[in-house]
Amino acid sequence: MATNMSFSEMKSLFSYVAKGDDLKINTLNLSGSDNMSNGVYYWMLDEQNLSNIELRMKEHLEIERPRDNETDKQVEEELNNL
Q: What would the pLDDT profile of 51-73 be if each residue is shown by its tens digit?
């Protein structure tokens, strides 16, 4: 397993979770299917479920929802600049 969290960030996260003061944990499941067509295992995400999860996370994180006339590429560029 790999992570991009520093050790300091991990300790901070652990301290936050260990407190347990009004800790609210939400879980989301990424639906999909197994694929081993070339001998390597892949979890193939269900695109509709992925879109729904993306919208729920943006709402939860209070990230502005894209206007109807914006393309997916523009939205992706905005998210990459956050």
A: 999 888 888 888 865 555 555 66
